[in-house]
Amino acid sequence: MYLSTVTSPPAAGTPPRSGRRGLRAVSANVFALGTVSLITDVSSEMVTAVLPLYLVLGLQLSPLAYGAIDGVYTGATALLRLVGGYVADRTRRRKAVAGLGYTLSALAKPLLLAAGSSLTAIGLVIAADRAGKGLRAAPRDAMITLSTPPEQLGRAFGVHRAMDGVGAFLGPLAALGVLAAAAQSFDAVFVVSFCVAALGVTVLVLFVRDRRESVPATGRVSVREAAALLRVAPVRRLVLAACLLGLATIGDGFVYLLLQRREELSTVWFPLLAVGTSLGYLLLAAPLGVLADRIGRLPVLLGGYAALAAAYLLLFGPVSGTPLLVLTLALHGVFYAATDGVLMALAGPVLPDRLRTTGIALIQTGQALAYLVSSILFGLAWQVWGPETASRVAALAVVAAIAVTLLLLRRPPAGSTAPPGPAPRPEPAARTESAR
Amino acid sequence: MSGLSTRGRITIAAAVTVALAAAGIGYVQLARTRAAADTVPAASTELTLDSGPGLLVVSGERLAVVSRTDPSGARQISGVACARAYAAAGTAVCIQPDTAWSYQLVVLDRQLRPTRSFAIPGLPNRARVSPTGRMIAWTTFVGGDSYSTSGFSTRTGILDTHTGTQVTTLEDFAITHDGKPYRNTDVNYWGVTFTTDDNTFYATMATAGVRHLIRGDLAAKTVHTITTNVECPSLSPDGTRIAFKQAVDSDPQRGWRLSVMDLATHAVTHLAETRSVDDQAAWLDDHTIAYTLRAPDGEPSIWTAPADGTGTATPLLPHAESPAALH
Asked: Which InterPro entries match (chain B) (predicted)?
């Protein structure tokens, strides 16, 4: 509950939480991928929930020294994610690359025990786990887009993220159950978590189909071709918009910290703020995904960011007490539900099939790096202007990012009202804008 | 896998599920049996903080008292569960597990009866009682508390047991750094040690990647930086020196050297212990320092070293941590 639930932005590749509507309407492959994500998230959140306890109380390590290892990895995993995406496209083996990612994370669980109290070894194992997460996200999302008709992408991603969120929600509970059953032994949690992760890999291997036939094998993808992706105007605009929106998003940690300070919330309850957001995400991801298919993905995406701006304004707004907490966390949940999967649904049809994974990795990486930069900037703004002004500036930045995104991604004016074709080409034919 | 029928896949999935479930349940069972074999029988003797020249420690995660003169003799183990403990002048503090995830701070009297308890956020790190037995200080690790969106920060609080006044975090105190007012959201405090006036204290303050020794004034809610690379200070009984852990080459990742600093001259003496010590040391008297060392699996043991840097590090007590002298 401490380390990653509170911290990592879902956009950075470990999408959390959400829904239930329309399960029947997604393809078997999306359902299988959702099941893999659900099982894997139970496994990884089990470890996330007990890792601080294990490091601080089991091994008696100083977490301040441990925290220092952390930031370095974002850059490294960003690169790995891009390479993974490219390799998946070049070999047309998205499932294999995703499987490698899931396997790496599964193996990290027993390795964490083997690492003992060596900070270096623990750092390496955690890096391997992150690398696994980074590797699998883009090929998984690419497989979702390739197994879903373009007009149902919102629903497919919504259902997937909801299943993912259920897993993240159940993980800490499972850890608590194992701790109780195993007389508080941390190693039992890691071993059970590994078993659960291994089940996830099994489901992937047995039930997920790569649909390699849906992408014609017309020569291998080259680095040049991948790099040329950014020269395709709609792709470039989408990556730009994703980065801009990422830049306007301050870390969850800040939001919770400000809430906690304003309400003088006992820090004992601090982790529950993240749980509140998760719950909102989990319940809303599928319905908002369906809505995105009906009324358009861009309005839902931007609506999500509007909710985020509202949440930032509420931090020093007129409401206080329980209504403030409920409202802010609900808006925060709406933000994640309306943006994380929907952005991928928006991206899918714009990216050519043969470069789908690379393109998705590009967007996710851009957003993750932008998010890192925005956290640093907001930290500085807080220091210089104080939290009140800084949070209002952040809200303003979100509004500005919404406006620019609208300009970048709104439908071209002349007659192209039809939804994008099922398999857009890499050529400028893919100019049909994504908002639909 | 494309050669398999749906039925075949489901059969394999079911078999793998059963095998993995068996492995998981088997291991949980094993862990439970192992833990049952390890449990120290809770001999709930009538322990007090008056037990002669003794040492209060945490042994097997319970509060215990051993004799100073014969530390290897029988350990009196109480029924009080503690992750960290300390005692002075008839007052003890114990950071106690409340649920699997949360801890509470308990103040105990001479008879080890709880007089006050309250929930504290995060995971226990340090606990101290002032030499007079009046003030209590604690440090915990909390997650997601600072703007560095990952990793930990610390939270340090102080309780006045006479008035009941509680400072839940030192982070709101006004800082004077190099003679000038200083403000930064990344400020973290840990490891408080009190002087005998129950108002002046020393602690570590970290900001912008540097760890400072600070002197604080509780009533005025102010702190002043004194010097750098001093962590977890522990004031000597005569109030002239500070035992602390000094990060090797100012890099905590390279471990800490147990050292003593003269407060008048700022002269630092490395003690005979050369292994890395991550603890807030305790003075057994004006010449001897006790500290906890950890085996790689986290198993603690208490050692002592002369405060003047001479002699050698000597094992005092295996399977024990959090030493505090009972006079």
From this structure: 6-blade_b-propeller_TolB-like (IPR011042), WD40 (IPR011659)
Give dist(CA A22, CA A160) in Å, integer: 11
Same domain, B76 and B87: yes
Least confident stretch, A50-54, A212-216, B294-298: A212-216
Helix axes A297-314, A270-295, angle to 10 degrees: 150
Name the amino acid, one letter, at B142: V
Residues A183 and A205: their CA atoms lie apart, in Å, by: 34
Tell me if A256 and B144 make a contact (CB, 8 A cut-off).
yes
With a CB-CB cutoff of 8 Å, which residues 260-279 of chain B face chain A?
278
What pLDDT is stored for residue A375 in this prediction?
78
For chain B, the domain total comes to 2
Place of tokens 């020269």: A231
Q: For residue A20, which of A290, A340, A208 has the smallest C-alpha distance?
A: A290
Q: What is the mean pLDDT of residues A284-294?
A: 94
- Given a contact cutoff of 8 angstroms between Cβ atoms, the answer to whether B263 and B243 are in contact is no
Characterize A232-271 residue by residue with b for buried, 16 or more Cβ atoms within 10 angstroms of its Cβ, and e for exposed. bebbebbbbbbbbbbbbbbbbbbbbbbbbebeebebbebb
User: The sheet that has B103-108: what strands, in order across it?
Assistant: B84-88, B91-97, B103-108, B114-120
Residue A267 to chain B, least CA–CA distance (Å):
5
Q: Give me the long-range contacts of B122-126 (CB less than 8 A, separation at least 24).
A: B122/A267, B122/B155, B123/A52, B123/A53, B123/A56, B123/A57, B123/A63, B124/A57, B124/B83, B124/B84, B124/B95, B125/A56, B125/B84, B125/B154, B125/B190, B126/B84, B126/B156, B126/B190, B126/B191, B126/B192, B126/B232, B126/B280
Q: pTM for this structure?
A: 0.77
Chain A contact for B41, CB < 8 A?
A: no
| Enclosing domain of residue B301 | 40-326
Q: What average pLDDT score do residues A195-214 get?
A: 88
Backbone conformation region of residue B156, classed left if phi is above 0, alpha if psi is from -120 to 50, else beta: beta
Q: Which chain A residues are Cβ-neighbours of B117 within 8 angstroms?
A: none
Whether residue B197 is found in the same domain as residue B320 = yes
**pLDDT tens per residue, range A143-168:** 999 999 988 999 999 999 999 999 98
Cβ neighbours of A253 in B, within 8 Å: 144-150
Residue A366 domain boundaries: 6-210+221-412+422-431
Q: Are residue B48 and residue B101 in the same domain, yes or no?
A: yes
What is the mean predicted confidence (pLDDT) over A114-136? Answer: 84
Of the candidates A183, A205, A251, the beta carbon closest to that of B32 is on A183
Q: How many CB atoms are closer than 10 A to CB A382?
A: 24
Neighbours of A432 (CB within 10 A): 19
Please tell me if residue A182 touches chain B, with a CB cutoff of 8 Å: yes
What single-letter amino acid sits at B82?
C
**Do residues A9 and A275 touch, judged by C-beta distance below 8 A?**
no
In a domain, A300, yes or no: yes
Q: Is residue A195 part of a domain?
A: yes
Cβ A70–B16 below 8 Å, yes or no? Answer: no
- Measure Cα distances from B86 to B143, B173, B215 in Å: 25, 25, 21
Residue B203, pLDDT above cutoff 90: yes
Q: What are the backbone dihedrals phi and psi of residue B222, each rounded to the nearest 5 degrees, phi first?
A: -130, 155
Q: What single string gives the DSSP state of each residue in B74-121?
A: PPEEEEEE-SEEEEETTEEEEEEE-SSS-EEEEEE-TT--EEEEEEES
The gap between the terminal CA atoms of chain B, to the nearest Å, is 73
Higher pLDDT, A5 or B78: B78
Together in a domain, B138 and B254: yes
